TrEMBL record:
TM region positions: 29-53
Keywords: Membrane, Transmembrane, Transmembrane helix
Name used for this protein in its record: Uncharacterized protein
């Protein structure tokens, strides 16, 4: 029974993990739209920075799901050695507070796969 629960949890987590990937792509596209559509470069820079940070938050959330996916996969591989449906309980045990949480968001925002388009869009905004 536990293996089936872990398998169902994996399916749900994987679907959400992929959904976060689509959301972060939408954030990147919104940043491109801001660069093209917003005529005030100061406002555009602020909005692009905000979208960059928002993507960092989304990637942090996605990372938490990825961490749980790895636990679930190990549980399935070991024949249900992991308890199912412990995403929030496990996260709460190591949840950072205040500055630690902000540091997580910033670390995610500075990952190359997240950060790559934003400085370029900001430079384009200033140049145009």
């Amino acid at each position: 029974m536990t293996t089936t629960a872990l398998q169902q949890e994996w399916l749900a987590l994987q679907a959400q993990h992929e959904r976060y990937e689509a959301l972060t792509l939408a954030v990147k596209l919104a940043a491109v739209a801001v660069c093209v559509v917003v005529p005030d470069s100061v406002l555009a820079l602020g909005l692009i920075a905000l979208l960059w940070l928002q993507e960092g938050v989304l990637k942090t959330f996605q990372g938490r799901l990825g961490d749980r996916l790895l636990v679930v996969e190990a549980g399935v591989k070991a024949g249900a050695a992991a308890l199912p449906m412990q995403l929030h309980s496990d996260w709460l045990l190591g949840r950072p507070r205040g500055a630690g949480l902000l540091a997580q968001y910033l670390k995610s925002a500075l990952r190359p796969t997240v950060a790559l388009p934003y400085p370029l869009l900001m430079a384009l905004t200033v140049a145009c």
